[in-house]
Amino acid sequence: MNKILPAPFLSLFLLVFWLLLQNTITPGLVVLGAILAVAIPLYTNRGRDFPATIRKPFKAIEYFFLLLVDILISNLNIAAIILMPSRRIKPALIEYPLDIVGEVPITVLASTISLTPGTITAEIRRDGRALMIHALNVDDHEKLIASIKQRYEMRLKEIFKC
Amino acid sequence: MNMTELPGWADWLVSSLIIIGALFALIGSVGLARLPDFMARLHAPTKSTTLGVGGVILGSIVYFSVTATFSWHELLITIFLFLTAPISAHLLAKAGLHLELKRVENTRDLRAQPNQYSDED
């Protein structure tokens, strides 16, 4: 199993991607897509120097939908901030201490922070144990850090087991 | 190519989705012009445009699914957008940080050791 499918989720992603590109589903296309989905990870696996395995795929799907809803809310928030008088915003640079380890989980967390309400990841500390976040409008930064921690980081910790 | 007539409900749905999308794209652009400094400006295009593009894409999916066959490949645009938007925002924020661009004076710097995030030695 592991010899033929070194990265099962990548293979699945490639197959879905292929079918989306074709925009139709016929048996021929599914077979061709399946061959590509097996062949491409076999070839590219040598170049993967970031070991990352999703231990809980269903949690990952739940995380994706949670993120989708949060992006929607964040859009409305930003729109409200833009349309109100600009003097009242309170930006801040915040240090966010990381609990998770590993390149892929931290990258996912940083991207999540960039996509959700009023925050952008700007930099990682030299030792890799904290992120620097720019928040557009924040009153209580402790509360913001706590909410990111329990809403996203705990879930990622569970998904990647790190 | 002749335009196909849409049924009434689809007509309303597609038009409202496209108008909502366009509205959010417009708000994002207004934010780009209106917010006070570089870092704050970054917030507008990374977030509001996601919903703007999302609305237009949903409109397109509904339109082509009703008039022609089921059409899903617009979803690829969303996947690419979710992958690329945070990365470009991150790179711009990083560049702005390292160039030490001026920030609005009420920005609070809550970093314990700011030198740990700069490239000065």
What does this molecule look like?
The complex is a heterodimer of chains A (162) and B (121). Chain A has 162 residues and is mainly alpha-helical. Chain A folds into two domains: 8-47; 57-160, no CATH class. Chain A contains five helices and three strands, in the order αααβαββα. Chain A has helices at residues 8-22, 27-44, 57-83, 103-115, 141-160; strands at 92-97, 119-124, 130-135. Chain B is an all-alpha fold and 121 residues long. In chain B, 67% of the residues lie in helices and 2% in strands. In chain B, helix 1 packs antiparallel against helix 2 (38-67). The termini of chain B are far apart. Classes of the chains: A mainly alpha (162), B mainly alpha (121). The A-B interface holds A 17, 20-24, 71-72, 74-75, 78-79, 81-83, 86, 89-95, 110-112, 114-115, 118, 120-123, 125-127, 130, 132, 134, 136, 141 and B 24, 27-28, 30-31, 34-37, 39-40, 42-44, 46-48, 50-51, 69, 71-73, 75-76, 79, 82, 85-87, 89-90, 93-94, 96-97, 103-104, 106-112, 116-117.
